[in-house]
Amino acid sequence: xxxxxxxxxxxxxxxxxxxxxxxxxxxxxxxxxxxxxxxxxxxxxxxxxxxxxxxxxxxxxxxxxxxxxxxxxxxxxxxxxxxxxxxxxxxxxxxxxxxxxxxxxxxxxxxxxxxxxxxxxxxxxxxxxxxxxxxxxxxxxxxxxxxxxxxxxxxxxxxxxxxxxxxxxxxxxxxxxxxxxxxxxxxxxxxxxxxxxxxxxxxxxxxxxxxxxxxxxxxxxxxxxxxxxxxxxxxxxxxxxxxxxxxxxxxxxxxxxxxxxxxxxxxxxxxxxxxxxxxxxxxxxxxxxxxxxx
Amino acid sequence: xxxxxxxxxxxxxxxxxxxxxxxxxxxxxxxxxxxxxxxxxxxxxxxxxxxxxxxxxxxxxxxxxxxxxxxxxxxxxxxxxxxxxxxxxxxxxxxxxxxxxxxxxxxxxxxxxxxxxxxxxxxxxxxxxxxxxxxxxxxxxxxxxxxxxxxxxxxxxxxxxxxxxxxxxxxxxxxxxxxxxxxxxxxxxxxxxxxxxxxxxxxxxxxxxxxxxxxxxxxxx
Lengths: 294, 221
Prior knowledge:
The complex is a heterodimer. By secondary structure, chain A is mainly alpha-helical. Chain A has 12 helices and no strands.
C-alpha cells in the first residue's frame, strides 16, 4: 500500500471514526428540535386546511402531482397515510410536536428523532410539491440525529473525560456537515445554471415579487444586482471556507450573511434558521464555563 | 516537508475495522445518491434518470429524494412574477377575487403559510408552462371545494369561475401614476355543478386572454 493511500485512509478514518464528546451533537439536536417543533405547530394549526380532504391541496390533487400509477415516478414509495386518511393530519402533527419536544429536552434517546422524522416524512410525502426549503434539511438532520442524539445534559463542565467520547457522535456531526456542504453546493450550482444569477436580475426579481423582507423603490435595480452577485459570491466563499480548517472562522460570518440574504430576498426565516441550526455542526458554539481565576 | 500528524485517537477507535469498511461504503453510497438527486434539479441525463429510478426505494422512502424541490431561489422569470389564483362568485359575477396571492405576506388573508402558498402557485405556473392543464384543473377543484367549504353557513360562497393569473404592469411613455395593470390569465375554468353535488371544471379554450382588472372604465381593452 502506498504511503499516499495510507495517509488518505488515515484521514478518512480520522474524519469519520474519531470519538467525539457528544456535546456538539446535543446542541445541534436542541436547535433542530426547536425548529421541528415550530414546523409541527404550523402543521397542527393549518395542516388540515392544507392537505385535508377539503384543503387547498386535497389528496386527489396530491396523487396526481406525485404521478400516482405512472411508471417511473416512484409514487409507490410515498408512504404517507394522509392520502387515504387525511383526517389523521392533526394527530400526526401532535405526535411530531411531542417527539420534537422530547428531542429538545433530551428525552427518548433515539426514539424521539425517529418519531419526529417519521411524522415530518408523512407530511413531506403527502405534498412533496409544497415542501419548503427548510423541510428537507430538517428531515436529513433528524435522520442523522437518530444515529446519535447526544445526551440529556447540554451545559458543559470544562473538560469531559475521554471515556464519554463516542464515534457515533462524530459520525452524526460529520454527516450533517457533509450534507450541508452538498446542499449549499447544489444551491449555488442550480443558481449558476440560470442567466438571472449571472446578469444580476434574480435579486431584483425577488425584491419586485416582494418575497423577502427587503422593499426597494422603482429604479433601485443596481442594488438588486449587487445583492444577486453577493449571494453567489457568499455561497462560493462559504463552501471554500467549510473545506479549509484555516479559514473556517470566516465561514461563520459568511453564513450569517447568507442567512441575512435569505431573509432579505426570500423572507423564509425557517430556511435561514435551519441553515444556522445545521451549521452548529460546523461552527460549534462554545458553552464551556470560564475558568476560575486562581 | 513535514508529515501530517496522525490523529492520536485512531488506534483507540472502538469500531471494528470490518464495521469501518461497511460504514464507509454506506456513507459513500448515501452521499453519491443524494448528490445525484440534488444534481437532478440542475442538470440531468438519461443515465442519471435510470439510476434515480433504480434508487427510488432508498431515496423516496428515506425522504432524501428532492427532485420536486427546486433548491434555486428563482426559476425562470415568469415563475418569479407575482402570481394569483382568483375566483368569480355567483353573487358578484363581474369581480375577480384573489384567494391565493404570491405577494401576500401573512396568514391573515387565507390562513395559509405564505411560503407554502408561493410553492403551490409556483407548481401551478410550472404545470401551466408544461401545458399540464389536467394537473391545474385538479388543483383548481381542490381550491374551489376549500373556498366553498370555508365560507359562512348563512351565505355560502358559490364559485363560478377560477383562474391562474400573472399581473403585468404596462407603462407607456406618457407615464401615468395610475398606470395600466393587466391581469394575464394563464388558465381559466368554469365550475360545473352536477345533481349529486359533485363539481367539475371546464377549462376555457381560449386561455391566453388579457383581461383588464384595474382601471376598468378607462378605455383600452
